[in-house]
Design brief:
eight-stranded parallel beta barrel; TIM Barrel; 15 strands
Length: 363
């Protein structure tokens, strides 16, 4: 069952994303909770291997969108929960969002300063750009490198792209577009480039292959989906709009695309998971599905920064039980994925799953 014979006392949480070594695979993903310096510092102090600062771009419309945000935490029956930073594990986040409102030079200075400080904690603060205009985005990527920031995330999978004001955010679903965008940003910077992709595509693995071929050092799978939730009491749309939705239910969907992307790109291509992780065991599940690291975003946003040390403790306990290092897990389940046709034939087995009275002698 275990990965290798070693003492639990020497369990190693470190992983690598290309040339970037992380002290552990938990990345605090971009969101309102890491929009300020205080939030980023809290995530670093909690022990995150890296923190992705709240995304920025040059669009005034994207900054204004933050003033129209709204958030709902929903239980398993789609009923609204109090925002008390102690959500149940099956809670779902339904929300509108926007981008950081600081002028870009102020945002850049903050991220660079915090990334310099993160070195002392063996961590990173990652700059995240959400694309609006490609040429301006390329120029901003160059400015991120010039500021001394060590890693750049390019987010072209933000779920709100189809709903936000024109020119605010792009949401790319076509492989050719992904390749052209990534190639342009790659030409503008030598930084490690992590490209975050949408889950709103028929073939997420094809988008990953396009990004990787165009120069992405790693691809992040995958952005949240868009949903619509009617409110039973008001009989109106909850929050008044469609909105991005994600929760623990998304983990199997993300794992599937991780495994398929690993099969398509090969085991040497670094993948980062996002959308569905709520615990340290979920981080392990994503690693087993092929991820080298895991962005936790909604869980930390809705549960507070205490989620980080709890998840790391849970991951550490799991690795000790399995006698594994974190890096040992990467792709172990994905590489054993079989087709339906490879499964053993068991005639009549399905009958055990039918309620009494539902199967007659004539079947």
């Amino acid at each position: 069952m275990g990965c290798r014979a070693h003492s639990a006392a020497v369990t190693d949480l470190s992983v690598a994303i290309g040339g970037v070594r992380l002290k552990n695979p938990l990345i605090c993903g971009a969101g309102e909770h890491v929009m300020s310096a205080a939030g980023i510092e809290s995530a670093l102090s909690a022990g995150a291997g890296a923190v992705v600062a709240k995304s920025a771009n040059e669009s005034e419309a994207a900054r204004r969108q933050l003033d129209r945000t709204d958030y709902a935490l929903l239980d398993a029956q789609w009923r609204r929960l109090p925002w008390a930073f102690a959500p149940p594990p099956d809670a779902t986040l339904f929300c509108r969002s926007g981008l950081a409102q600081q002028p870009f030079p102020e945002w850049l200075e903050m991220v660079a300063r915090l990334d310099r400080a993160a070195r002392a904690q063996d961590s990173y603060v990652v700059a995240s750009l959400i694309l609006a205009d490609l040429e301006r985005g390329a120029a901003m990527a160059g400015e991120v490198e010039a500021a001394g920031i060590r890693v750049l995330e390019l987010n072209i999978g933000a779920p709100h792209g189809g709903e936000a004001a024109p020119g605010a955010i792009t949401l790319e679903r076509e492989a050719g577009r992904v390749a052209a965008i990534v190639a342009r940003i790659r030409a503008a910077t030598r930084l490690p480039l992590w490209v975050k992709l949408t889950g709103q595509s028929e073939d997420v693995a094809a988008l990953a292959a396009a990004a990787r071929a165009a120069g992405a050092d790693a691809v992040t799978l995958m952005g949240r989906f868009m949903g619509f939730v009617p409110d039973l009491e008001t009989m109106a749309p909850l929050l008044g709009t469609n909105a991005a939705i994600g929760g623990a239910w998304a983990l199997p969907l993300t794992c599937r695309w991780l495994a398929l992307a690993r099969r398509r790109l090969g085991p040497a291509a670094p993948l980062i998971a996002t959308n569905g992780a709520r615990s340290g065991e979920d981080i392990a599940r994503f690693l087993l599905a092929g991820a080298s690291a895991v962005q936790m975003t909604s869980a930390i946003f809705t549960g507070g920064f205490g989620v980080v040390p709890r998840a790391l403790d849970e991951l550490r306990d799991y690795l000790a039980r399995q006698r594994c290092h974190a890096a040992d897990l990467i792709g172990k389940a994905a590489d054993r994925l079989q087709s339906y046709g490879e499964q053993p034939s068991r005639p009549g087995y399905w009958k055990a799953f039918v309620a009494p009275g539902g199967v007659g002698d004539d079947v």
